[in-house]
Amino acid sequence: MYAIVQIAGRQYQVTPDQEVEVDYLDVAPGGSLSVKDVMLLADKDDVVIGTPYVPCRIDLEVIRHDRRPKVLSVIFKKRGGMRRRVGHRQRFSVVRVKSIVKGE
Prior knowledge:
By secondary structure, the protein is an all-beta fold. The chain has a domain at 2-64 and 94-102. It is built from no helices and ten strands. Strand 8 (71-77) and strand 9 form a beta hairpin. The radius of gyration is 19 Å and the shape is elongated.
């Protein structure tokens, strides 16, 4: 069984007991949340495509929060000696799919 679900504005293919890295969620580690934005649900040969969503619920548990490696960018203007280096580290959350519940 797997589902295509929208979490924090992006789509992910998830299966039960899978860990997924998603954009940062404002939930404490160890906390749980439910997502009802399920776009596709497949169970062996039975495939249900939503218009736009399938009546289903995905239960998630937040494992931890972390930050991706630093990305450096340089801002440069050709006159006046203007140079600036900017770094950014994107935050993300690791969630575990606890269960996929049909028909809710």
